[in-house]
Amino acid sequence: MTAVSALPAVLAGPDRLDRSLRDVRISVTDRCNFRCPYCMPKARFGPGHRFLPRAEALDAREIIRLAGVFASLGATKIRLTGGEPLLRTDLVAIVEGIARLGVPDIALTTNGALLRRWAGRLRDAGLHRVTVSLDSLDPAVFSAMSDSRIGLSEVLDGIAAARDAGLEPIKLNCVVQRGVNEDGLLDLVGFARREGLRLRCIEYMDVGATNGWRLADVVSGEEILERVGRVYPLLEESSAPTAVARTYRFADGAGDLGVITSVSHPFCGDCTRARLSVDGKLYTCLFATSGIDLREPLRSGADDDTLRRIVADRWKRRDDRYSELRGLGIAQGDRIEMSYIGG
Ligand code: SAM
Ligand code: SF4
Ligand code: SF4
Question: pTM of whole model > 0.90?
Answer without folding.
Answer: yes
